[in-house]
């Protein structure tokens, strides 16, 4: 059976539980069509590059699917009919991924790192006085500019 990756964007005003329920509904459609959803990834509520149907953000979900083409067609038909889905895309791939997607790795890396120095934002040590800045003119010590001639 062929392999697919299906990503859909759900409206921003939905709860994460509602998005999860939609994911399970689409997984059931695939299962009814003699296919299987190998994995699903909820990427979270993310900002869109541009407004889509008055939405500035959307819930992103990716499904890794092994299913025949008719099952994919039925799932896409149901997705297109759903008013809560603002965009979707299904791509045929050569093999199912064995590791998390780049979006999930990015989130893990940010959680591990916390911040650049490893400390949470509010717990950073004071950097202290930066010292003298040399012979740079200060705010009131700037030389006067000559008026521009137009």
From TrEMBL:
Biased composition (Basic and acidic residues): 105-150
GO MF, one annotated term: structural constituent of ribosome
Transmembrane segments: none
Region Disordered, residue ranges: 97-150
Keyword Repressor part of the UniProt annotation: no
InterPro entries: Ribosomal_bS6 (IPR000529), Ribosomal_bS6_sf (IPR035980), Ribosomal_S6_plastid/chlpt (IPR020814), Transl_elong_EF1B/ribsomal_bS6 (IPR014717)
Cellular component terms per the entry's GO annotation: cytosolic small ribosomal subunit
NCBIfam families linked to this entry: S6
Matching HAMAP family: Ribosomal_bS6
The protein's role, per its UniProt record: Binds together with bS18 to 16S ribosomal RNA.
Family label: Belongs to the bacterial ribosomal protein bS6 family.
PANTHER family assigned: MITOCHONDRIAL 28S RIBOSOMAL PROTEIN S6, SMALL RIBOSOMAL SUBUNIT PROTEIN BS6M
Name of the protein this chain belongs to: Small ribosomal subunit protein bS6
Source species: Sandarakinorhabdus glacialis
The organism's taxonomic lineage, starting at the top: Bacteria, Pseudomonadati, Pseudomonadota, Alphaproteobacteria, Sphingomonadales
């Amino acid at each position: 059976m062929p392999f697919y990756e299906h990503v859909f964007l759900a409206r921003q005003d939905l709860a994460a539980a509602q998005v999860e329920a939609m994911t399970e509904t689409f997984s059931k459609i695939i299962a009814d069509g003699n296919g299987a959803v190998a994995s699903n990834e909820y990427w979270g509520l993310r900002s869109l590059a541009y407004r889509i149907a008055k939405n500035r953000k959307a819930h992103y979900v990716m499904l890794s699917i092994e299913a025949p083409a008719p099952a994919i067609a039925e799932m896409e038909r149901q997705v297109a009919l759903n008013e809560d889905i603002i965009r979707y895309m299904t791509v045929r791939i050569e093999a199912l991924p064995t590791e998390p997607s780049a979006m999930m790795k990015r989130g893990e890396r940010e959680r591990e790192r916390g911040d650049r120095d490893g400390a949470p934002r509010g717990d950073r040590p004071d950097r202290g006085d930066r010292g003298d800045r040399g012979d740079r003119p200060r705010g009131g010590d700037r030389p006067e500019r000559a008026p521009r001639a137009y």
